[in-house]
Amino acid sequence: MKRVYGMAIRMVLASLALMFATGAGADVFVQCPGDTDGDGVIDDFTDPEYLAHPNAVCMSITGGDGFINMADTTVTGGARGRQLYMFGFADVTGVPPLDVIDVGTTAAEFPAPSIVVNEGEELYLTLTNVGMAYRPDLDDPHTVHWHGYADAAPVFDGLPDVSISVHMGGSLTYYYQVRGPGTYMYHCHVEATEHMQMGMLGQLYVKAAQDQLADGTNLNGFIHHDGYQYAYNDGDGSTYYDVDFPIQMSSMDPEFHDASEATQPLPFALMNDTYAMLNGRGYPESINTAELANTENGVVSQQQNALVEANAGEKVLLRISNLSITEYFTLMSPQIPMRVVGVGASQLRGTGGADLSYKTNSVNVGGGQSFDAILDTDDVAPGTYFLYTTNLNFLSNNTEERGGIMTEIVIHP
User: Fold this and answer.
1) Of 23, 173, 271, 406, which sits 20 to 30 A from 356 (CA to CA)?
2) pTM score > 0.85 for this model?
3) Mind listing the pLDDT tens digit for each residue in 228-254?
């Protein structure tokens, strides 16, 4: 009961803080060509601004706080696992500007909403800072940092010392001319150690322009057909795949999160991540295809599972990344070898065009690194296989065994 009353008081204080910060109310302003009502959705394709940017795509997100549950069960007797307070982003694309603060408050997701764009598009990404409802004493600004993207204008790069930070109640639209296919990631770069540990990180990848070639195009002997997909603009079909899955590794220190919720000094020097996850979930929740709501306010805060599914004979692209701020992980596929075709959103090609891709059963992924790896199931019997870390201490959900960084690869007949 005390917690309920405390939550109500904090929500009121947060609302008042937003009002004082922006005068009469929050200044939510979304910039998107052809968007007539400010909800981040293009609805007028005859608008001169859209006609000047026919490759525009738009997305609107918020930065705030919320809760998630871990995958251990013993702490709650079989219900959802340990609840952690978090910071995070939420997708509010399609929400009218006057409702963004209301919808985005305490709606943080982990991982953050995925951003998937095609090479050649112009991305208009609006971030609105809705404040920390459970911590009204905080007035932290937020940013979006597209990690690994070399062409970001400094003002849109998200580093607080060279670009704009979004203060509570305000909005900023980031603009990117999307170049360079491959697997990236994004996160808040304000007080990065704290904000990333608390959950402000997500998946971002760019699909290759080669996907859009005309049907029948000859790629040095490989014939492209409509619907074919490639990890990179390889020129020869060597990075062709049928289905792709983002696999983002991350980890959290429950004591750090509890200290933040309780308004206590944050134990940076003692940070010890004991919950390791794939796409924001420990095993066995990593293979649960349902969207998961937290036990604090019922918000669906874990929307992305890590189950890999394909039909026999298909090529599967794993978009592997690590945004843990404390750990590197070795990710292993013992039964189905991986062919690594790209690292850090760059195809593994020599200066003279030599193919530098390689086959392996494991990749070592440090914080901020990404790998594009293809599983070829042509000679793989239908069944269930595993993808997991060889770091044995991370095959657990805190103190509960048989969890952590592990998922299943299901090959259908």
Assistant:
1) 406
2) yes
3) 999 999 999 999 999 999 999 999 999
228 inside domain? no
Closest CA to 318 of 298, 348, 288, 343: 343
Say how far apart CA 377 and CA 383 lie, in whole Å.
11
Half-sphere exposure of 192 (CA within 13 A, CB side): 16
Give φ, ψ of 387 to 5 degrees. -130, 120
Structural domain includes residue 333 = yes
Is residue 376 situated within a structural domain?
Answer: yes
Residue 338 inside a domain? The answer is yes
Least confident segment among 3-12, 128-137, 223-232, 332-341: 3-12
Q: How many distinct structural domains can be found in the chain?
A: 1
DSSP state at residue 381:
P
Q: Cα(342)–Cα(354) distance, rounded to whole angstroms? A: 13
> What range defines the domain where residue 270 resides?
2-207+242-412
Angstrom distances, CA of residue 309 to CA of 77, 144, 247, 382, 407: 31, 31, 13, 11, 11
